[in-house]
Automatic annotation (TrEMBL):
PANTHER family hit by this protein: 60S RIBOSOMAL PROTEIN L38 (PTHR10965), LARGE RIBOSOMAL SUBUNIT PROTEIN EL38 (PTHR10965:SF0)
InterPro entries from the UniProt entry: Ribosomal_eL38, Ribosomal_eL38_sf
Protein's UniProt keywords contain 4Fe-4S: no
Pfam families tied to this protein: Ribosomal_L38e
Single biological process term from Gene Ontology: translation
UniProt name for this protein: Ribosomal protein L38e
GO molecular function: structural constituent of ribosome
Similarity section: Belongs to the eukaryotic ribosomal protein eL38 family.
Protein's UniProt keywords contain Ribonucleoprotein: yes
GO cellular component, as recorded: cytosolic large ribosomal subunit
Keywords assigned by UniProt, alphabetized: Ribonucleoprotein, Ribosomal protein
C-alpha cells in the first residue's frame, strides 16, 4: 500500500529502517494550465517534481519535492546501504 510523506526528516527516518530495501527516484516535468496572463510572462524553465519512493515491508513511502536543490541534497543523504534506482533514464545499450 502506498503512503505519502510530506516531511523530509520523517522520510529519512523511514529510509534508515531495517525493512527499507529500495529507493526509486523519478523526475517529472509539471504541466501548467495556460491562461492569457501566463502566456505573457512565460518562463523558459519547466518546473520539475522529483519523487522519492522507498519500498519497505508493508508500505511504499513517497516524498515529492519541487525544489531541485533539496532533491539533490536528499539524494546524497540517503543511507549508503540502501539500493538507489533512477527511474526514467534509458539504460546504456550494449554493443555486440
Amino acid at each position: 500500500m502506498p503512503k505519502q510523506v510530506t516531511d523530509i526528516k520523517k522520510f529519512l527516518e523511514i529510509a534508515r529502517r531495517k525493512d527499507a530495501t529500495l529507493a526509486r527516484i523519478k523526475k517529472t516535468a509539471i504541466k501548467h494550465h495556460t491562461t492569457a496572463a501566463s502566456t505573457k510572462a512565460k518562463s523558459t524553465k519547466t518546473p520539475v517534481a522529483t519523487k522519492f519512493k522507498i519500498r519497505c515491508a508493508r508500505f511504499q513511502y513517497t516524498l515529492v519535492l519541487f525544489d531541485s536543490e533539496k532533491a539533490e541534497k536528499l539524494k546524497q543523504s540517503l543511507p549508503p546501504g540502501l539500493k538507489v534506482e533512477e527511474v526514467g533514464k534509458a539504460a546504456p545499450k550494449k554493443k555486440n
